[in-house]
Design goal:
By secondary structure, this protein is mostly helical. It is 78% helix and 2% strand. A two-stranded parallel ribbon has the order 1-2. This is DUF6987 domain-containing protein. Keywords: Signal. InterPro entries: DUF6987 (IPR054256).
């Protein structure tokens, strides 16, 4: 009976040891990864996210503008690149918001210059995208895929605007003023969510 009890005890100990799949080295690696991710989150700012996005947009849009033959096969990959860049920016803005680093144009006067820069940069990004899509409409208005592709851009761009507004309260009011002369284009290319976010 004692031998049987010892056997059960040894089996229990073995089961406990075997149930720990994470090694010490793996745990340390995970800890390092978490610290690295946290540092990355602390280093990103609204300005850095928008600067990165603007650089990507300035790489993608000329390729769309220079398409010799606009069709589903040539346009879709570039629109996917554009929406991917917008989605990544929206995700990074969400990470900043989740960290609690939020400021308001109405409560922190010392940030007014930064807020103006943010509004100007967002306005430039929206305008460049809108003008490029309008040019696509001119040459490929009868292309069935244009509507769904532009809706993807609209949804992703709206995600960026939403992220900015959560972080810089009042920024979209400034953007709306800056984009007053392109409100008609926003409607003509079907960017309804974007237009609504800007109050046009």
């Amino acid at each position: 009976m004692m031998i049987f009890s010892k056997a059960i005890c040894l089996f229990s100990i073995f089961s406990i040891v075997a149930s720990k799949p994470i090694s010490t080295s793996q745990a340390r690696a995970d800890d390092v990864g978490l610290v690295g991710n946290r540092r990355a989150e602390l280093n990103i700012t609204v300005g850095s996210v928008l600067d990165t996005l603007h650089g990507q947009v300035n790489t993608i849009l000329p390729q769309i503008q220079n398409l010799a033959n606009v069709n589903k096969e040539t346009l879709s990959p570039l629109i996917d690149d554009l929406t991917g860049a917008l989605d990544n920016a929206a995700h990074d803005l969400h990470r900043i918001h989740a960290s609690g680093r939020v400021h308001s144009t109405t409560t922190r006067q010392c940030d007014c210059d930064d807020d103006d820069d943010t509004a100007n940069l967002i306005a430039e990004i929206v305008k460049e995208i809108t003008v490029t899509l309008d040019n696509v409409v001119v040459v490929a208005n009868d292309l069935p895929v244009v509507g769904p592709l532009f809706y993807q851009v609209d949804r992703s761009l709206n995600g960026v605007l939403s992220g900015v507004e959560k972080l810089v309260s009042g920024a979209l009011n400034l953007v709306s003023v800056l984009l007053g002369n392109v409100a008609g284009l926003l409607e003509s290319v079907g960017l309804g969510l974007t237009r609504g976010a800007l109050g046009h």
